């Protein structure tokens, strides 16, 4: 992958929105990165928002052009990006996992999240805007989010955000190149190895139904495939099932 082009800004509504605006009027290179000290309307999945204290965390968006990746396999991009983030964080301390579909976890607490917005052209992805938020040095969280934590709170010491960003982009680049070279089996294997609650049976909730199951796999289209103790295979897309804590 070509070198990254990093554009640092002080404040923006959301880095994905800002990147989208730039794309409407500019020919941006693959690897273009918007990094903001503060997002005043940070976006999460769906209608969710992202709390981030100014100057304390990593909030950035990355432009990629995986134009050989079929739209029906778009979740492979999420897997590759997640692995890059995990590899960078696990160099700090080997304790982080990927919670399906798009969160970075420490034990039962959320350290970060990913929001990928794809532009589809025909059967393939034309470009992807990958928004990433990682709690680095924040000490207090005031939103209604149930379980946030920062890396500073985990390690009991502050960290250099720019160094983490540099390493994270490099690690994402490694996995993105593997995606481009179609090492799908390797990506799927490592993604499952780093998946939150990837062993044993756990409680899940689908609508009003509470049930026990273990994760069998995550398909390339993002479907979570579960297996119950009775051997029943159950499949869920985004927002159709939730983890029970």
Describe the structure in your own words.
It contains 5 helices and 12 strands. Strand 4 (96-99) and strand 5 form a beta hairpin. With 245 residues, it is an alpha+beta fold. It folds into 2 domains: 5-193, Bira Bifunctional Protein, Domain 2 (BirA Bifunctional Protein, domain 2, 2-Layer Sandwich), CATH 3.30.930.10; 202-243, SH3 type barrels, CATH 2.30.30. The longest helix is centred in the C-terminal third of the chain and has 20 residues, at 161-180. The strands form 2 sheets. A 7-stranded mixed β-sheet has the order 1-2-3-7-6-5-4, with helices on both faces. Strands 11-10-9-8-12 form a 5-stranded antiparallel β-sheet, with no helix packed on it. The chain has helices spanning 15-25, 75-92, 151-155, 161-180, 184-193, and strands spanning 5-12, 32-39, 58-64, 96-99, 103-106, 109-121, 124-134, 202-206, 209-218, 224-227, 233-236, 242-243. Helix 2 runs antiparallel to helix 4 (161-180) and helix 2 packs across helix 5.
Kindly list the characteristics that best describe this protein.
245 residues; alpha+beta; SH3 type barrels; seven-stranded mixed β-sheet; five-stranded antiparallel β-sheet
Write a concise synopsis of the structure shown.
By secondary structure, this protein is an alpha+beta fold. The protein is built from five helices and twelve strands.
């Amino acid at each position: 992958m070509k070198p990254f082009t990093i554009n640092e800004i002080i404040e923006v509504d959301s880095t994905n929105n800002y990147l989208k605006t730039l794309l409407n009027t500019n020919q941006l290179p693959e690897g273009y990165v918007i990094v903001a000290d503060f997002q005043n309307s940070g976006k999460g999945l769906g209608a969710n928002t992202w709390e981030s204290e100014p100057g304390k965390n990593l909030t950035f968006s990355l432009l990629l052009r995986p134009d050989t990746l079929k739209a029906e396999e778009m979740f492979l991009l999420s897997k590759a990006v997640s692995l890059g983030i995990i590899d960078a964080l696990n160099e700090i301390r080997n304790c982080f996992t990927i919670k399906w579909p798009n969160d970075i976890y420490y034990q039962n607490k959320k350290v970060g999240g990913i929001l990928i917005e794809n532009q589809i052209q025909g059967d393939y992805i034309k470009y992807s805007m990958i928004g990433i938020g990682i709690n680095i040095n924040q000490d207090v969280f005031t939103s209604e989010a149930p379980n946030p934590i920062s890396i500073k709170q985990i390690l009991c010491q502050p960290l250099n955000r720019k160094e983490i960003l540099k390493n994270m982009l490099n690690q994402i680049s490694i996995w993105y190149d593997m995606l481009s070279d179609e090492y799908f089996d390797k990506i799927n294997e490592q993604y499952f190895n780093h998946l939150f609650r990837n062993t044993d049976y756990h409680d899940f909730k689908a609508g009003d139904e509470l049930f026990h199951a273990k994760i069998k796999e995550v398909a390339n289209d993002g479907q979570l495939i579960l297996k119950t103790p009775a051997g029943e295979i159950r499949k869920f897309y985004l927002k159709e099932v939730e983890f029970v804590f």
